[in-house]
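All the exercises in this workshop are built on plain-text protein records. An example says more than a description, so a record of this kind follows:
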Amino acid sequence: MKTYLVDDEIYSTDVLRVLLEKYCPQVEIVAIFNHAEQALKAIQAEPPQLLFLDIDMPRLDGFELLNQCTPFDFKVIFTTAYNQYALKAFRFNALDYLLKPVDKNELITAVAKAQNPKIEQMTAVQMLTKNTCPERIALPIANELIFVEVSDIIHAISEGSYISIFLKNQAKPIILTKSLRELEEVLNNPHFSESIIRI
């Protein structure tokens, strides 16, 4: 399958490329784009058969990119660090919605869907159920994203515009310049606020 990878983070496309080459040799990666605008031009000129697409990108997000390609007949698998876009992804007829860091087994299943038309695309309910309570989340630290297991979060301390997150087996907390509301939305866990100490 002629495949494009689109993600503004070079690290993410590197990891996805390695996983696909190792576990999904049937996928032919013909282009990797770290700028959505370049990807759009390439897709409009020569559409792929399969597109792995990040959502939260500067200047042109994944949904807007697809809007500008409409109508399209290639298959789309979203790869994102955030779970709140699942329902919207379904509206774009996404085959699957993979949370970063991408799990190899979920990746293999998603590629199988792209290959076999008899395997139904994920329903909206499945997408929402699959991603309602993420096992891992991406925390923005400086100029990079750090992925942590939600189960490793012990508690957090909110101090104005800063949040200190304490993890198991880690002496120093992770410091975020993120509001408490934003963090709770990312976690999408109604019980997490009980672990917050507000100062």
Remarks:
- DSSP finds seven helices and eleven strands in the chain.
